[in-house]
Amino acid sequence: MNDEATRLGPVHALGAAAMDLMIGARELYSVFVRTLYYTVRGRREKGAVTAQLYEIGNHSLFFLSITMGFIGMILAYQSGLQSKRVVPDFTMLGATYLELLVRDLGASLGGLMLATRVGAGIAAEIGSMVVTEQIDALRMCAADPIDFLMVPRFIASMVMTLVLIVFSGTVAFVSGGITAYIAFDVPLQTFFNASLVDAGDLTIGLTKCLAYGAAIPIVSGYCGLSTFGGSEGVGWATTRAVVNTSLTIIILDFLISGAGFLVFPG
Length: 266
Description:
By secondary structure, the protein is an all-alpha fold. The protein has helices at 2-41, 48-86, 93-131, 134-140, 145-184, 188-191, 199-225, 231-263.
């Protein structure tokens, strides 16, 4: 009997984990659908979206620009080293780097950076409201937390994620050009070459920006709304928001990249 219980223990644990995952996915899907519904049909509190645009955009601009600037320098330097070992010709270094930045790296790296700052902030804020019973007070006032809290963050995140990634991607490209000029004597006129970037690259890059901008508040907001307990629960919700949002961005990157290479194989 004990042997059978020992044998079934991991099976039961795996089944319980799978059940929890299915329940969480269903609740996350419900939050997403309700957010889309209230985005179209919900009530707008005056100034709510503007406040979130400032909170997400202004407070993330310096962090994202500095991070992407250093990443741009590292990528350009490493790309130049690898090119030098194979073919010591840097005429297409900037064009290749820009294509990769526009199609994938700019949106994906920027999205992961925003997941750590914006996602953690959303989860901590909403989670604190849950444990202090402010969410219950909203429901007693006939205000849906999804409409009141999630929709302004959803709209602002989609807008500012696109703006921030385009701006920080430009910073990364410029810093990469300066690095290539200093390290490999590549003229800036040669590095700033956009000949390889086409409509397919722009479409894939912009699609990723919008998808990441939608995923960050949805996943983080869900983690905040599912908070329980006191301050420890808020900390756990914040950790889950960063981990789950980063994982969602990686999965979306894979799916959008795969679909993009089928539609725009170039």
